[in-house]
Design goal:
Low-confidence stretches: none
Largest sheet: none
Oligomer: single chain
CATH superfamily of the largest domain: lambda repressor-like DNA-binding domains
CATH class of the largest domain: Mainly Alpha
Distance between the termini: 31 Å
Number of helices: 8
Shape: elongated
Order of helices and strands: HHHHHHHH
Number of domains: 2
Structural class: mainly alpha
Number of strands: 0
């Protein structure tokens, strides 16, 4: 799925026209038509992505998908919410480097994530 396709699908679930949606997020309807059609890249600005999430009434998992698709479809490689966490919390890069140095397998990473989710 593309960012534009995801936004369009969720916008239509809300029975919201493109112009109404664009107005609610404070963006140009023509540009949003091009984004949904894949002719323009996704925004990487966390403020816009948060507005989209709010207007589309996305749950936490759906919001994560929105951010991941935006990073994939834009020139950014790291989702905006993750970039914000890295900037706000200087220990996050240490966590990533530790994981990299330990060469944790995918299964060990999943186990670590589950432990964190269960404990906190």
């Amino acid at each position: 799925m593309t960012f534009g396709g995801f936004v369009k699908e969720n916008r239509l679930k809300q029975k919201m026209g493109l112009r109404v949606f664009a107005a609610k997020i404070g963006e140009d309807a023509g540009n949003w038509c091009r984004i949904e059609g894949g002719r323009l890249s996704a925004p990487s600005d966390i403020k816009i992505l948060n507005k989209i999430s709010k207007v589309l009434e996305l749950g936490e998992k759906q919001k994560e998908i929105l951010f991941d698709l935006a990073a994939k479809d834009s020139k950014e490689k790291v989702p905006a919410d993750i970039k914000q966490q890295i900037a706000a919390n200087k220990i996050v890069p240490i966590l990533f480097r530790t994981i990299d140095k330990k060469k944790l397998s995918k299964e060990k990473l999943k186990s670590l994530i589950k432990r964190i989710q269960d404990e906190y």
